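Standup notes, structure subgroup. Blocker cleared on the guanosine-5'-diphosphate input:
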Amino acid sequence: MSNRRTFAIISHPDAGKTTLTEKLLLQGGAIHLAGEVKARGAARRARSDWMKIEQQRGISVTSSVMTFERAFDDLGSVTFNLLDTPGHEDFSEDTYRTLTAVDSAVMVIDAAKGIEPQTRKLFEVCRLRSVPIITFVNKVDREGRPVFELLDEIADMLALDVSPQMYPVGMGGEFAGILDFASGEVVVPEGPSREYHGKRVADFDLPEEIAENVELAQIGYPEFDLEAYRNGDLTPVYFGSALKNFGVTELIEAIARYAPPPRPQPAGEEQVTPDHDEVTGFIFKVQANMDPNHRDRIAFMRQVSGTFKRGMKLTPSGLGKPIAIHSPILFFAQDREIADTAEAGDIIGIPNHGTLRVGDTLSEKDKVRFTGLPNFAPEILRRVQLKDPTKTKQLRKALDDLSEEGVIQVFYPEIGANHIVGVVGQLQLDVLISRLSAEYKVEAALEASPFATARWIKGDDKALAEFESFNRANLARDRDGDLVFMAKSPWDVNYQVEKNPELTFSATKER
Ligand code: GDP
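Run returned:
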């Protein structure tokens, strides 16, 4: 079985994702942080400038890949690929897409707050793809809500079976440790209070009231069932404190033991399994302009099958001719010996000049096309207003680039000169304006557009031509030149759907 575990952390802002990530990397031997890879000179400066924007905004705009390793007596060495999802309330397609590249997720919940809106949204995205979830109830070093209340809330709000694997012995000031059901031992805090280290105690005297609750937690909830977890129907629940580095070891161990190894990926009617004999993968993220002078970009490929070797030729879908991957960024590549290969489940950063786009499949034989990496219909549409009219060319280039990267979607109306940008969340618009200015020296503003949403239209040529002749004012082309109906309201969409049964109106577009 593969020793790769490729996962993401989903949480509401402030639940402790960053702190937990740090602790995971500390406990495992962290190998590379994506942002540090090959950033030299100008590239490094550009990157840190961009990170300044992120800091000013108090958000993390770019996702990255973090890899760490741990050895277990019985499992051997396990490699963990943690894909970071931007943790802002207002999430973007980037977040959705990152979740298409993982095999499982850890859901971090603040013990005092329970399920919050962002946790819930991200959970729903995971559910769409039956991504299995391990729950980590964080901040038990502080006063939190009663354990049963939290467990029941997870079960009710997410319609998911919960199976506690631990029980916190007190919370906040009363916090005395965590009883681990698997071993029957209590892990008690040890060492200076800022940074506990867990010590396992076999004959810990449980206070009577807690002993009763522990029994209730064990008999009142479903037992852990690997298959139910892997189907996304049950979540094992762990408790801990990321800040105090408590319960993190148990969490890592749970991911190693239970989280699924690389899963097969759908490609139309077929499934490509990790043991498929050629290298295949798909691009789930493109990060551009790490160096503004070179307009270089890194496409992040989730490897689905095969053993990748440096210098290998892969054919991107849609391009038709192979490209040689001479300088891949292999995030787990700690020592030079293994730096040249990657396995299913790994992420490979591929430097390129705009050839590779989100949703592309890469493969050796150019026979596979992965499906299920959609563009989502934008929910916010804005007209781009250029402050300096001589910069139309730069603007078009920038919008094309940024839409390739998946930051925004761009639509070019059939009538009129104003470009329209579409996003799933407000944050993307802020990112757009600041990147236009910082990276392309284009000052622009956004103004209201008459449109509320968009639908990709398909049909035979005759039907399309007829539709076009009547609806030109509401039609646009996307970056690929595909026809899009710009709707003023959901009602508008329904009306056209009913009126044009020979056409399909789609809210997502798969490349
Ligand atoms: P993120 O927004 O989910 O990435 O959350 P952060 O990791 O930045 O944490 C948000 C705040 O909660 C910070 O002030 C952390 O120090 C604090 N925090 C994180 N984990 C814990 C924990 O286990 N216990 C306590 N008391 N505070 C925590």
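Discussed briefly. DSSP finds twelve helices and 33 strands in the chain.
Next: hand off to the docking folks.
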